[in-house]
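Incident log, support desk, overnight shift.

02:14 A customer reports that sequence design results differ from what the structure should imply. Their input is reproduced verbatim below. On-call engineer (initials T.W.) acknowledged and began investigating.
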């Protein structure tokens, strides 16, 4: 994921509209990572910059969280209840058993 906005290509309009539908920018990237951060890697949305400055900043922050080892787990501890974390662990175990 390019660090500098100038190194990132401008997102096609269709991608930007899709990103607006997918990512709840009214929620912090940290909370979203905790609640729904599993399975987003690789994160190609971070390869672009977006016309909507708030969306652009949000996506870059979320991408940085995904790229930081242990960050998603840290935010899961912060934002998920013990029951939600147990359910997530059980789902991950089932998926790993299938592979």
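02:41 Re-run completed on a clean worker. Output:
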């Amino acid at each position: 994921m390019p660090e500098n906005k100038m190194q990132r290509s401008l997102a096609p309009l269709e991608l930007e509209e899709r990103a607006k539908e997918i990512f709840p920018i009214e929620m912090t990237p940290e909370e979203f990572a905790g609640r729904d951060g599993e399975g987003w890697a690789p994160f190609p949305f971070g390869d672009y910059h977006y016309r909507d400055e708030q969306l652009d900043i949000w996506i870059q922050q979320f991408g940085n969280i995904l790229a930081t080892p242990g960050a998603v787990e840290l935010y899961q501890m912060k934002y998920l209840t013990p029951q939600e974390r147990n359910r997530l662990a059980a789902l991950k175990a089932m998926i790993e058993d299938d592979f």
